[in-house]
Amino acid sequence: xxxxxxxxxxxxxxxxxFGPVAALAxxxxxFxxxxxxxxxxxxxxxxxxxxxxAAGIVRPDKGGVEIAGREVPVGHVGQARAAGIEIVHQxxxxxxxxxxxxxxxxxxxxxxxxxxxxDLERRWTRHLESLGVRVKPRERIRDLPVETQQAVEIARALxxxxxxxxxxxxxxxxxxxxxxxxxxxxxVMQANGVTVILILHKxxxxxxxxxxxxxxxxxxxxxxxxxxxxxxxxxxxxxIIGSTDDILSETDRDALVGAAEDEGKETEPAHHAGPAILDxxxxxxxxxxxxxxxxNVALTVGRGEIVxxxxxxxxxxxxxxxxxxxxxxxxxxxxxxxxVEVTHHPLSARRANGLRVIxxxxxxxxxxxxxxxxxxxxxxxxxxxxxxxxxxxxxLRRACxxxxxxxxVRFNSPNQPAGxxxxxxxxxxxxxxxxxxxxxxxxxxxxxxxxxxxxxxxVWRSLREARDRGCGILLISSDLDELFDIxxxxxxxxxxxxxxxxxxxxxxxxxxxxxxxxxx
Amino acid sequence: xxxxxxxxxxxxxxxxxxxxxGVLAQRAGIWHLGLEGLMIIGACSAVLGLVQGGSxxxxxxxxxxxxxxxxxxxxxVIEKLRANPIIAGLGLTGLGLGGTDLAVQAIYGSQASxxxxxxxPRLGPAFGEYGVLSILVVLMPVAVIAVWILTRRTxxxxxxxxxxxxxxxxxxxxxxxxxxxxxALCLGGVLCALGGAELSxxxxxxxxxxxxxxxxxxxxxxxxxxxxxxxxxTGAAFFFAIVGALGIRAQLLFGERVPPDFLLALPYVAxxxxxxxxxxxxxxxxxxxxxxxxRDY
Amino acid sequence: xxxxxxQVIRAIAFVFIALLLCGxxxxxxxxxxxxxxxxxxxxxxxxxxxxxNSLRWGLPLFLTALGVVISFRCGFFNIGAQGQxxxxxxxxxxxxDGLNGAPAVLVMPLTFAAGILGGAVWALWPGLLRVRSGTDxxxxxxxxxxxxxxxxxxxxxxxxKDPSGTGxxxxxxxxxxxxxxxxxSSISPAIIVxxxxxxxxxxxxxxxxxxxxxxxxxxxxPIMVVxxxxxxxxxxxxxxxxxxxxxxLAGTIEVLGPIGxxxxxxxxxxGFTAILIALVANLSxxxxxxxxxxxxxxxxxxxxxxxxxxxxxxxxxxxNAAIALFIxxxxxxxxxxxxxxxxxxxx
Lengths: 520, 297, 347
What we know:
- The complex is a heterotrimer of chains A (520), B (297) and C (347).
- With 297 residues, chain B is an all-alpha fold.
- Chain B has 12 helices and 2 strands.
- In chain B, helix 3 runs antiparallel to helix 4.
- Chain C has a single domain, classed as Orthogonal Bundle (ABC transporter involved in vitamin B12 uptake, BtuC).
- Chain C contains 14 helices and no strands.
């Protein structure tokens, strides 16, 4: 326990329930002033809920929050901000069409006065410069690269005199060097007297920056705040994951908690890839609404091979998946699937050829949340067989029930809406649909994002099994630990281009450099 | 020429007020299809208030109060009962049309229209031919600029836009999107009352059943055409008014050779073309986001 | 099952709330609300004659509402049923009027085909604008209603005008007796058979074909079916065209049946009521049949009120509008949630 300094933020017996699920249960914790605190835990451990309760966005069912020794009414953002607490969200919370200056202005305290555009820009340029954020105040949020967006978001949080700054998983979207820059910036803030609370899920990062660490598991406080000088990676990993050794190999566990060594180590022997299942040659696209254009991308995936795509988010990974799914406009190049050129084939034809897609957005692209499980599950087969075919819903429901049981989905009835499933079960439903015997190339885009340990391990095992059956797998992830753990080969994307290809053993430094272009 | 300009101002002004109401709702993230109903409530109240209450102020006051109440009802249904904004808006429109019909019938029996003894105050002979324009025509540019400043040059406007575009962003800086939407809708109610009053009392001095004839929907189209910008939407509203005025001109010119119904349809056709063009320019409709009940993302 | 039951109860509850609001409006306007509701019930359901009338109004509404069900299920807000209904009626009248005198076996199929096609075409262009260039279909179909209404005025006072017409509203010549499928203002077995056949066909389409499942997935989440490889534009266009065709069929039936001619400004709230029916029925084909009968009853009462009870027919419009205001509500107000069920999530 850290003692002797004043408390910046204290939570007392905080409990939050979402429906029947307890997101937080009786969490009491004190954060000392002027330090950098880390809060860690798996996905679903309640970290984000905890941050939002502290910032007044979520009203807890029970408990209280004190800032600098003063009780703050819970569930009231205005009061929490007035008391000096600010939050930077994981998926940023600035309206994309706003300019940087407007984004600064809309969150400032008070009612403000009339402004002219130039006024606004001048005022906020000064603020941004003082924080060392290099961005034109006239640029729109949606046009900014991810790292700049985050810097703007932090600057937005500091327009008031924040005494406590909470950052919810700020490193998830950054490259290794971006993480270093962020940590430098946070240390400057700490020196200026701001208390920083970082929600993290990688032990490596915790040990690199934080003064204390607090661990949440299943909505409960497991330990902390403990001085980071007193903990080591192994103990922290055990405390984050709990006793689930049975389902995880040691390397998987290290990958999950981000405790793997910096330097690559020799793991299992690299798989020998068979003949190419996917062969992209010189593929270029138009700029896509969801990312930069692809430029001259050449990529192959062989039979029985997992190819990982690394890169900072927004460097063309989405465009790549869309181009492979015939949803982005190609301007050049060819795409060949299992020896058949499919450059101009629609997605339905590519799917008939063995292509399967686990898209980025589980809840919008992968599932219709308000539709029944059996409808979601049977969509692929129904489309394959033609739209005017007569069907028997009862038979489809039975088939769906059987398939979901095989895939270990926890559900009550095939008629329940997909939105009632937890994230892990929803992803298993998608796997049940997309990973079938006729699949030859599976594109898995961020397949474990937001999943807890058990579900993540399940997804990894499924992908490895599919590989062992001879599928080619293209895995897109922004989590380097995940890629290192299960990819047979890693390809780095930068600004819509392929910027390097790596095989075992992987080195974080090399790949990180390729992600930011620092290798040139 | 002057005559045409006067005609355009007269038919355009009611449309502009209602369009501004639509802009406010749009920026708060609500597709407002109740504009038509609010407008006819405003038109009816102005005339009935004058005839029954004896004063134009009474008419305007009743119109404003009723339109604000109706807007608050729409807000309650959309925000608190989470009803689909499009269907609820159409329902409000139906309530306005049916309610005003009922009110007229309750007072005058089965009479189809009500004449007013006089209209809104005019500019007067000092302005020559333009003296026939009502004061609400003169106030219209003021309203446009006021709404423009409110939405584009104040922090409140930014917060309102955030509520429409990214409600979570608004909530996380302590802005209550529900409350902002209520404010936007009620302010829009006032504007609709004025637009309706100008329609029935500006040049015609008569209230007839269904006299809005789709102007509320045209205003809604102008909002989309103008991309939620008050100035652009005002421009679009005037575009529809000009097409309408040209239709009437054409009718005088061609007489019997072109059926009058075709010319009457011109503003509606122009609206379709306008929405089509703006859809092309902005890469598609955004209506999907308001599908609420039936869509789940 | 329980979920379904709650939906039904909720729909009924909100209809009840809407009627309460109407009662307040009636009282406010100086009419006795109990008397109003009593007269409506008399006109709609409380006699054999009333039931016949309810069927007469309900069956065409049922057909148009089915079209709305299909296109809403596909996720498109085609609110142009009114215009599609008019265009179907106009096309049918053109054929029946133009071929007057020819044998019925030839004229009838052509008339029905023309009516269905007329409605379908009037739904096709907003559909094409929607799927090709993303033009918002709410506006285009709404404007389509106004344009079709004006076109109806034009044809009834122009090309199809009845020279002997004396009524206030312009109308076409009466449809030839040989082509009529029902006597004026009444229901006939032919109309019932058509409604049942179409109803069964649509039930199969929605509940027993891939199209039914995929279109409802697309309606709830178009992005998801695109990632499954569906061509959204085709599903959507099919929805638009089927919706228009059914509205056109209803228009044809009105012209050949109870109305017996085309008249300007006929049934001006038909399309809106059909949308309401579809929504109250929660886009289910079976429920649409029941709900259509209820609204058919209201429509029948709309004629009964001014003639027999001396009350304004606008009361029916107000009831319809109030139901529209509330019917899509998905939640109870927060303060009531403690009494009625689970809490909404706080996020």
